[in-house]
Design brief:
Elements: H1 2-25, H2 27-45, H3 50-57, H4 60-65, E1 78-81, E2 88-91, H5 97-106, H6 108-112
Antiparallel strand pairs: 1-2
């Protein structure tokens, strides 16, 4: 019935209100809110955005050069040809299913000798 749903929601609402009051009474939350407020005041005073603030406190060398943070380079592809079947596979990093099955069947050193 609709009234049961209403009562459940009302009970949940009271429980959430109680949790909010408990959170608001905590000193660590008060300090965080005060800190956030102070930061927002400084940002408004100097007409700065959050992005500019993050840039200011991020890695100095990247901020000074204007470069993006370095990303991991892509692995170079290696090709292997199975002399028994003539099958050729391209491997980046060694996790391909065919490459792993070849290693299990023939051994790692043998498979590495098949590099093209």
């Amino acid at each position: 019935m609709l009234i049961n749903t209403y009562r459940q929601k009302e009970q949940l609402f009271r429980q959430l209100q109680k949790e909010l009051q408990e959170l608001e009474a905590r000193d660590d939350l008060k300090k965080e809110l005060e800190f956030k407020s102070a930061i927002e005041e400084v940002m408004a005073r100097f007409d700065k955005t959050e992005r500019e603030l993050v840039q200011l406190f991020s890695n100095e060398s990247a901020a000074a050069t204007g470069d993006e943070p370095k990303t991991r380079r892509k692995r170079t592809a290696r090709k292997y040809k199975n002399p028994n079947t003539g099958e050729i596979i391209e491997v980046r990093g060694g996790r391909q299913r065919n490459y792993q099955s070849w290693i299990q069947l023939y051994g790692k050193d043998v498979v590495k000798s098949w590099a093209i």
